[in-house]
Amino acid sequence: MGFEDLRQYGQLVGYGISMAKKKTNENRLTATEREEFKAMLLVKRNEILGDVTTMESGALRRDRSELSNMPIHMADLGTDNYEIENTLHLVDSERKILAEINDALLRIDDGTYGICEGGGEQIPKERLQAIPWTRYCVGCATFLEKGLLAEKDNNAQDESLL
Question: Residue 107 is part of which domain span?
């Protein structure tokens, strides 16, 4: 991307999100397409919820009772702690995706789904099919990763939706 692209997207830093909220999804995605994306998001949300529940219960309810008659070796404890920490990190990543999915479902309801929050243009359907919870087109996502575009704070998301 050239200097002109950087300058154009640099102007979006700080107010690109409000710009996207002003535009609606009229004539961009059909009602059928929105329903298909909503179904995809709901299936993925249920899949992740099941995975998270399984991982959490497995990590937090480790039982060493089958080894209770054997002395515990320090290396075994280290391995167990590493596995628990790794699993909890995966759970955290999955919870972040759940928050993105819940936000995408809200955008479907308010008519802004499929509109880039960085530039306000339509996100290509191919990208939405690959990552249905995405909030940015490829160009804005690239700028976001490079720190050239301000990101919406999702930490304020209501965790009761998870």
Answer: 3-161
